[in-house]
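User: Please predict the structure of the protein below. I'd like the answer in structure-token form so I can feed it into my own downstream comparison script.

Assistant: Understood. Taking the following sequence of 213 residues as input:
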Amino acid sequence: MLSPLVTTLIQSTLLNAISNIIAQVIDQYRHNKPFSLNIIPLIQFVTYAIIIIPINFSWQKSVEARFPGFPTFPWSPRGTASFSNKTGTVDRPLLPIKEKEKEEKPKDKWQAARLKPSGTRNFVIKFILDQTVASIMNITLFIVLINLLKGISFRATCGAICEHFVPIMIARLKYRPIVSLLMYTVVSVDRRVVFGSACGVIWGIYLNLYAVV
């Protein structure tokens, strides 16, 4: 049986490959050219995906381990919750309040405050981290990896970061908040990278066109 990481890697890589092919169709249509698959940019973008997906998978796991749980919205999952242990974040059925109290009895009010989950607070933190730290990381890695895979020098790549970071960041902020809202309210941690890739097929097309497929 494949591990969650391998499953995510395969699924997300296929979605990224699809976005590259669609971007090539759009780009060639714009220039009134008959469609002809360009293998080199496809390989470049798939290679980029293979590198970035494990990074994002680990990021989502670590963020969920640090800030577990779902917010208490009407559409939030009611049957499961995420908990952290030494082997990672897992989902298990929610226990009734009385059973939870029996399972973990705090010694004092400070320990009680630490043990009490705050799904809404953790959701807000994860949402903000996704729009800031994760966005900066992903955009920077995209510019660096795509340029290096094209054989562009490291110095020119650094210049590309200064030139292209802001436009890509603005474009990302137009769609990513909606994806994050869904991702941190209804999607389990092991499925978040795949979900993000599925929602991001259009984003992938934009990145491919931005990279001039």
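That's the full token string. Confidence is low (pLDDT under 50) at residues 75-87, 89-103, 108-115.
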